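ASSEMBLY PREDICTION REQUEST
Request ID: AP-0331
Submitted by: J.K., bench scientist
Number of chains: two
Total residues: 708
Priority: normal
Notes: Please return the full assembly, not individual chains.
Input sequences:
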Amino acid sequence: MSTNTTGRVASGATDRARRVQGPVRGGLDLGGTKIEAIAVDRRNRVLGSARRPTPTSGGPADVAAELARAVSEACAEAGIEPHALSGVGVGSPGSVDPQTGAVANARNLPGWQDSFPLAETLSSELGTSVRVGNDVQVATDAEFKLGAGKPYRSILGVFWGTGVGGGLILDRRPWLGRGAAGEIGHTVVKSGGRRCPCGRRGCLEAYAGRGAMEARARKLAKKGKHTDLFHLMEERGRTRMTSSIWGHALELGDKLATELIDEAIEALGTGIASAVNLLDIEAVVIGGGLGVRFGAPMVKRIAEAMTPHLFNDWRPPAVHVAALGDLGGALGAALLVPRGARKTVDAGSTRRDD
Amino acid sequence: MSTNTTGRVASGATDRARRVQGPVRGGLDLGGTKIEAIAVDRRNRVLGSARRPTPTSGGPADVAAELARAVSEACAEAGIEPHALSGVGVGSPGSVDPQTGAVANARNLPGWQDSFPLAETLSSELGTSVRVGNDVQVATDAEFKLGAGKPYRSILGVFWGTGVGGGLILDRRPWLGRGAAGEIGHTVVKSGGRRCPCGRRGCLEAYAGRGAMEARARKLAKKGKHTDLFHLMEERGRTRMTSSIWGHALELGDKLATELIDEAIEALGTGIASAVNLLDIEAVVIGGGLGVRFGAPMVKRIAEAMTPHLFNDWRPPAVHVAALGDLGGALGAALLVPRGARKTVDAGSTRRDD
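STATUS: Completed
Returned structure:
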């Protein structure tokens, strides 16, 4: 953070800080392509937000620096200094240690295999306490507490994007298992089936993950199958087959895109139904880049694809689109900071009194 | 129960009752082919047991009468009158209402579609309070509290028999969902795959349930595939392909039996791995007729079949054979009776003071 930026933040902050009532919390959603930062008040109203691209080179320290910048920008908009936040929550991919806030093995982030002390690094950078949780789980928590899952006691969150992630709330509490629960993307929907980006066969993600779908489209196009998907990518100057490119191809009636999305819906219906048969949860909330982009009509199709596989088909779960859209991850991250958190800053270090 | 039998029970009871310390609970496991009854002491030691065939005709009232007879026999062995039991628990198939003890839709029992007041009927027959739970869930509870699941906080019980049932303990508490959780047998392991006895396609049970395996063997034998399975059934005078017939066929190296069991193991490995990916539980306990009959070597094969599908393959769950064997269901049923239950019998009716 440059001195200039700090200056700008500080001057804006003076006016706005008077209007902000109660403690302000920060939320960070660390994705493979973008970082989303927000500052929220006691009632989870967004006072400021910022979005920055995730670094594609360097290492964890560079990603942490970019996260800190995003928080500062969101704070600037909210009119508060980062060190005045009552805490910052981070939703992170990879293996998260919620006790220490260390993150390891974040496959989609640059050079991030070994454990990196993310909470500690960000905390000393921002001057406030930092908690780290699993990205998909915090997004599920947000939908449960603030979004489409509010009316229920038990939900399954399914995040349909580059991969397919899942989060569970059982009897009002997040279910993490031994720390790695929720891998619904690696439910086997077809024994001996298509190769998944994870290296295994027949996983839900092998059919429904945007990454796997792009690879499949590329393979079939090479074999001579016609599609406008790659043309649309070039036209829009994209290097990845984003949700909006898939959406556009479907609108144009692209046959290959339609087939691949049909397969994805079928796989999602099958895998989610199996999870429902095992857990008999009340509701399924579908988010993620593709889930949010396609919205209610596609979620209705997923619910229909579940039906033939539901053992108790007379009482299917409710199936909803994620209500918080793109902000769910950052809102859920902010929920990691205890509401009662109060700041006590002394000599540059931070201490949180819960 | 005839007067003669009562006489015998009563005379035996006088001696033994003096040795029984504390309250005695009854447990009933109501299966499609047999009823298992036990009487246990405070420390869940079996004081008496009895086994009777499940009626194949009549209706719920006939089944209830047979259940009462089995309890009386187990009590006779334990040296206690049924009405002196502090309570009786029943593990039942079908849709169980744990509040009222009513059971509906028990597909494998004669004429049992509509709701039948099982707890009420048995209670007035036996002169003690009766609680009813789901058969698979009580067997899972028993393994968790007394058997192979004791060292863990979260387990998945898989009961591999005529069908494939499942029960969950999450963070030391049974997880029932909206009352119908645990249907791991209807996890789809192969989209568009083999027809399941439930009518759906590709379920785990379609490959691993003894009922489905027998139907498959019959179909393939009709098509001219050689097998000794049916010969073994005739030889032993059986009308169903029991676990021991499958065991014997495998020992003889029967090719079709080997193929079908291989498919079952593969399906079990796949479906259980998907459940583990979703829940990240600590341990899997495998019971049921086939699970108990085949024991550790086969459970080891199931664990191996899980491995290629486990997302966190560096930390697989423990996989155990059910430690309580055939008695697990009845022991779990007895656990439905609160330990603190005390009997107060007045004028033939019963009241339980918890």
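REVIEWER COMMENTS: Chain A has a mean pLDDT of 90.
SIGN-OFF: pending second reviewer
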